[in-house]
Structure formats: structure tokens, C-alpha cells
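In this section we turn from sequence analysis to structure. A common task in structural bioinformatics is to predict how a protein folds when a small molecule is present, because the ligand can shape the pocket around it. The inputs are simple: the amino acid sequence and a SMILES string for the ligand, here zinc ion. Study the lines below before reading on.
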Amino acid sequence: MKIKLFILLLLIISCKKEVKTPLETNSLPIETQKDTIAEPTKTIETNKNNTETLLRDTSFINIKTISNDFILDLKYATEDNFLHQKVYDCPDCYLRKNTALALIKANQEFIKQGFRIKLYDCYRPLDIQKKMWQILPGTNYVANPKKGSKHNRGAAVDLTLVDSLGNELDMGTKFDFFGPQAHHTYTKHSPQVLKNRKLLKETLAKYNFKSIYNEWWHYEYRPEIRSNVSNFKWQCE
Ligand SMILES: [Zn+2]
């Protein structure tokens, strides 16, 4: 009887151990593992969605990452502009992706004719527009940041053409010359100037770029004209 009781006691003790062991080593870690896997997955999904939203909202592209065929002369990244102040930290040309792609096509056509596009200004963050407005408020030269300009939408470019040696074609006035001579309707320029302007305007029109009457250098890509004003800021290298 004593022996039977002893065996029974042993059995109970060993059973308890067996019950405890799986609970401590298998069940709990599985639960913990599930949590650990679930959390990062959720985080990744959230991040992915945020990134996608951000890309949809901005969708800006640095033109030199998709084409080496442009000459860049970003005037507002220097003091050589009508404000006589440097307002960009670095001379990069960002545009809405579709504006950039259309501009590349237009440039390819110019290149076939022995010319290429030189870019003076591209997308301009709203904060820069405000800065420019502070320097020169209440004129026709700087758009009121309350409305925003086509440059703030990534739809506008300021440009000219250069020949195969990199010389600018004569367009009658310099970039940012604010006077009637810069208007498309001004016809007293030399035949060569009128021809150069015509080449610029007609070629860009084929790729859906619209001119404005008073600045021969300014063009707007129609499909992006109603895009949101943006304050997206790029990282300078
Ligand atoms: Zn412009």
C-alpha cells in the first residue's frame, strides 16, 4: 500500500511538471511570436501607405535624374536675377513628373535640329514664393503667394534655347526682362529673333506647353496647370 501511494505521488508530481513545461516553453512563445510578427507588418503597411500618399501628393522629379540633355542655369540659385538675391539653396530643377517627361520629348526634337533647352527656373516651393514676394511685393513680377503661381504647381518652366556650342539663341531680351520687348506680341525685333521665338513656341506647343503673352521664356504644361500648389522641398546634395 505504501509503495502504491509512493508511485501515485510520483506520477502526480511528474504530471504537474509535464503540464507546466509545455505552457512555459511552447504556448507562450508562440503567442509572443504572433504579436512580434503582427506589429512590424502593420507598421510596414502604414509606412508604405504614407509613402504612397506622399508620392501621389508631390510626384516631383529632379529632371537630371531622367535626362542629361538639358543645360541647367537656375538663376534663382544665384544672385544673377532681378531680385539680386539667391533664393534657392541649390541649383536643381524639379518638376511634376509628367511636366518633365513632356519637356524631355520637346528637347529631343530641339536636339534633332541642333539646339537644346537651357532651364532658368522650374518648380518653386511655396515658401520660396513667399520669400520672393517679401523681397518684391505688389508688382506684376512676382505672383502673390496667396494664389500661388504655376511654378508652385510644378507645371511651369522658364527656358531658352542654346546652339550646339552652348550659346543662347537671341530672343530679343534677357530672361526676366520686364517690358514690352519681352512680349510675344512685340514684332519690332529682328527676323532672326522672331524666328527663334517662333521655333521655341511652336515646338513647345506640340508637347502641350502653353505660352503667356508677356514672358517669352515662360511655358506651362497644360495637364498640370490645376495641380495643387506645393511646398515640397528637395534635399540639396
Ligand atoms: Zn516663369
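Residues 35-224 form a domain with the Muramoyl-pentapeptide Carboxypeptidase; domain 2 fold (CATH 3.30.1380.10). As an exercise, try to locate the residues that line the zinc ion site and compare them with your own expectations.
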